[in-house]
Amino acid sequence: MSPLCAARAAVRVYAAGAAVILAQLLRRLRGALPEPVFPPQPDRVAIVTGGTDGIGYATAKHLARLGMHVVIAGNNERKSQEAVRTIKEETLNNKVEFLYCDLASMSSIRHFVRQFKAKNIPLHVLVNNAGVMMVPQRTTRDGFEEHFGVNYLGHFLLTNLLLDTLKESGSPGCCARVVTVSSATHYVGELNMEDLQSSCGYSPAGAYAQSKLALVLFTYHLQSLLASSGSHVTANAVDPGVVNTDLYRHVFWGTWLVKRLLGWLLFKTPDEGARTSIYAAVAPELEGVGGRYLYNEEATQSLQITYDKKLQRQLWARSCEMTRVLDVTQDGLAG
After folding, report:
1. Burial of 324 (0-12, 13-18, 19+ CB in 10 A)
2. Distance of alpha carbon 303 from alpha carbon 183, whole angstroms
3. pLDDT band at residue 295 using 50, 70 and 90 as cut-offs
4. 322 closest CA partner among 115, 102, 127, 160
5. Which sequence positions are flagged as catalytic?
6. Nearest CA to 233 among 315, 329, 332, 165?
7. Model-level pTM?
C-alpha cells in the first residue's frame, strides 16, 4: 500500500469515527436512555474474551450480575485475576473465573479450549470481544498481521473449536449465542483477498478496519451454516460505538488528545459500550434470531458487501486454511 493509500485509509477510518462520535453526542444531548433490564441468567455459562478491560470487563461484570457463570479469557494473568476478584465482590457471584488465552497464538487458543472442555460444563454464550487497534506493523506468533490475526483469525478459530459445545448447550427456545464485537470502521474497510496480511503495504487504520469487516462477514456466514444445519445456536455482530477505553493508545495524537480532554462528553463509557453486547447475549427478543448487525440495541444495516455470500464463503475457506480447521462450507455444519 502506497503512503497515499495509507493516508486515505486513515482519513476514512477517522471520518467514520467522527461521524459516530457526533451521533453519540446528539444522542447524549437528547437525554440519557435508561439502562435496559434483562432477566436473570442462572445456570448459564459465558466466555468473554478480553474481559479484563473496557467493554469486555463491563460485559463480563453485567453477565455475572445476571447470575451467569463467566469465564474470562485473557492473556494477562495478573489483570485477569484482579478482574475476577473485583467482579466477584461487586456482583456477589462466585462463579467467575479466568483461563489463559492468547488470541495471537493458535496453540494457546487450542489449549484454552481443551482446558474449558475439561470442565465438562455447557457454553451458552461466547462473546468475541478482545482486540487490538491501530497497532504498529507486527505479526502474531503464527506470522499473521496482528489486527487480522488477533481480532479476526483468533476468534474464528476459537468459535469453530467451541461450536460443538455451543450446539450441545443450545436447545429449542433457548439457543446458545455467539456475539462478535465489530466496529463502525467496518463501513470504510476493504477486504483484500489477495493480501489479507497487508504485506504489500501497511496502514494501521486500514488493517484495523479490514479485521472488523472480516468479523461481520464471518458472523453472517456462520449464521447461515448454523441455520442450514438446524443447530440451536445463533450468531450476531455488535457495534459498541466509540468507547473511552485504552485501545486508543496507538491512534493519531490529535484523537488521543480529544479523548483525554472531551472523552467524558463525546465517548461512551465502557458500561455504555457494553450494552449492545449484553443485549445480544441475553435479550429475550433475540431468541432464535441471528445474522444481525446490532448497534444501540437495534438491528441495522452493515456495509453492503458484507451480504455478499460468495465473499463470505471465500473468506471462510481461506480462514479454514490459515487455522487448519475443517472447511464445512459446502455441506453445512453437522447438526
Report:
1. exposed
2. 11
3. very high
4. 160
5. 208
6. 165
7. 0.88
